[in-house]
Design goal:
Layout (H helix, E strand, L loop, with lengths): L13 H13 L5 H10 L10 H27 L5 H20 L5
Length: about 110
């Protein structure tokens, strides 16, 4: 026997309604109702929204840093130690810049 569903009425402004629909779509929801239920009942930290452009830029930068780390590991495994510390320091500086830019300096 199907469960009885309660009906909730909300009264967002047109702008709020559009924002909610965009957020639901950005998380892959086809149903605004299901998005609101999941968000309201979800535990833990709630993600505000996904800034796809910012996320793609972050992933691009992290991939570049990953390549640098792989090159450092390769050099160290081959016995090249002259420049490894310099490259490692540079990579960590770049990683810190990317994380600070993405988080707005709000790292925990």
């Amino acid at each position: 026997m199907p469960s009885i569903r309660a009906k909730i009425t909300t009264r967002p402004t047109q702008e709020q309604h559009e924002q909610l629909k965009k957020r639901a779509a950005s998380f892959g929801y086809k149903s605004l109702s299901q998005y609101l239920i999941d968000r309201g009942l979800g535990e833990g930290i709630q993600i505000e929204s996904i800034d796809r452009e910012k996320l793609e830029r972050l992933l691009f930068e992290l991939r570049k840093i990953g390549i640098n780390l792989n090159q450092i590991a390769l050099q160290m495994n081959r016995g090249y130690r002259n420049y490894s510390q310099q490259y490692l320091n540079h990579t960590f500086v770049e990683l810190e810049k990317v994380l600070t830019t993405f988080t707005g300096g709000n790292e925990e």
